[in-house]
Amino acid sequence: MKNNYVDITTNDLQKIFKNIRWNNPISVTLTLKKSVFHNGVWEKIDRIKVDRNTTHFFNRLNKKIYKNSFRRYGKKIRSFVTVGGDGDWVNYHLHMCLEKPNHVSYEQFCNLISECNSKTTFGNDSKDIQPMYSDGWITYMMEQRTKTYNTPDTIEMFSSSVDWLNSNFEQLN
User: pTM to 2 decimals?
Assistant: First the structure.
């Protein structure tokens, strides 16, 4: 049975992403909680909830940074997001390359990332935010060790670990 993801290999993606020019790129890793207590029941995270939680994170971050331009004109932070972990042995975690907007300082941007992450359902305090000095981070984001769909049938189909919904490659003016 064929999956619903685009069949692109890791090497194909690395070639594509190394050609994207990022201004002020920031490398971010956010680890998500395995479960939360909600309405009297423990709610366990799964891949769909990971994507929903990430969308919630970006909606908050974009609203904080771009104010009404986010809703009115669709202005968003450039981002590349991959999902690692399986939710059982290895917590789900997000590896992201985010482009820091020019009108926000590095320190403000880091604080906004932390704040917006903490307001999501599965947001965890475990995070790593650093300036990106080379394309080595993009290569690391594509490593196979802890990718969600890392099975013999999909070992080369890395695209299943890319969060295409929350990745945004449009260049802003």
Answer: 0.82
